[in-house]
Amino acid sequence: MSKPVVLVAEELSPAGIAVLENDFEVRYVDGADRAALLPAVADVDALIIRSATKANAEVFDHAKRLRVVARAGVGLDNVDVEAATKAGVMVVNAPTSNIVTAAEHAIALLLATARNVPQGHAALKQGEWKRSKYTGVELQGKTVGVLGLGRIGVLVAQRLAGFDMEIVAYDPYIQAARAAQLGVKLVSLDELLTQADFITVHLPKTKETLGLIGDRELRMVKPEVRIVNAARGGIVDEAALDLALTEGRVAGAGLDVFSSEPMTESPLFKHDNIVITPHLGASTHEAQEKAGTQVAKSVKLALSGEFVPDA
Ligand code: NAD
Ligand code: MLT
């Protein structure tokens, strides 16, 4: 009897592949290439993706045998969960696999924006020894506003407490007592915007959060604010941020995610006071190994008809 087929549409760790290889036929495709993806899903039982593959109704229409779609990471915004459910396809992810890695990347961006690390590095590589131009700011005693006090937001808050920062957060779904336990004060969005010296975004991308930090919000912030977004592109409106940077209403920004990806050209990239990375938030060996093995195990359970616990 032939083995069930697992289609791997984006890079998956060797440890994850090893979990699958004994029991399944493992095939590969470039999930960002729709012309290749759509025929490739026709006769597979499971599909494994990361951010670049849009798993939507069109995919499920082509995938007559598909039983499970697995996202080797946290966010499910590139999976149409409703369409999957309609098509009888189970959706699984690896919700804790990369949270430490993502939190550490947000902090790396925050420190890089505070201290102009990439700018100084780039100038020195060009043979320019520019010290006063890249004078930065300290974190100690400053207020950081955490947008979204979920898994990653909490890890970021705990780590920034070690820098002696005041931490406020906006998250209407979290109890004030839980926040207080973490040493975090829950505030309204407007309070956060007016108080913060740094803002770090850890929200899911939903109808409510898309554009949550837009022109109105960026007119409320302190001019010395530095904004980090290592959550999802578009939560901080890119045109509004571009304008705020141009008009000097924001001192800097650290961005790992963009409204459309890959993003290699953007009006934002002209600003000297931004630090950008190409969606590297989950990109450590440790996180990729965890994400790969977690989703591979979930796929194995799902294809054996067993209960798939939250990872
Ligand atoms: P999570 O679900 O644990 O936390 C999200 C928090 O946001 C929750 O506490 C929730 O109550 C809050 N929230 C939801 N809607 C809100 C709203 N409208 N207003 C205010 N608060 C709201 O998610 P997480 O695991 O912490 O992930 C956070 C984000 O980071 C997600 O967008 C995820 O996709 C992204 N992420 C990015 C990378 C990367 O590579 N850059 C890696 C991992 C995760
Ligand atoms: C995630 O949601 O897990 C991250 O954005 C990482 C990724 O997409 O690979």
UniProtKB/TrEMBL annotation:
Reactions performed catalytically: (2R)-3-phosphoglycerate + NAD(+) = 3-phosphooxypyruvate + NADH + H(+); (R)-2-hydroxyglutarate + NAD(+) = 2-oxoglutarate + NADH + H(+)
Pathway noted in the entry: Amino-acid biosynthesis; L-serine biosynthesis; L-serine from 3-phospho-D-glycerate: step 1/3
Homology family: Belongs to the D-isomer specific 2-hydroxyacid dehydrogenase family.
Keyword presence, Transcription regulation: no
Function: Catalyzes the reversible oxidation of 3-phospho-D-glycerate to 3-phosphonooxypyruvate, the first step of the phosphorylated L-serine biosynthesis pathway. Also catalyzes the reversible oxidation of 2-hydroxyglutarate to 2-oxoglutarate.
Keywords, alphabetical: Amino-acid biosynthesis, NAD, Oxidoreductase, Serine biosynthesis
Protein name (database record): D-3-phosphoglycerate dehydrogenase
The enzyme's E.C. designation: 1.1.1.95
Entry's Gene Ontology BP terms: L-serine biosynthetic process
GO MF annotations in UniProt: NAD binding; phosphoglycerate dehydrogenase activity
Range within the parent protein: 1 to 311 of 529
Coiled coil (residue ranges): none
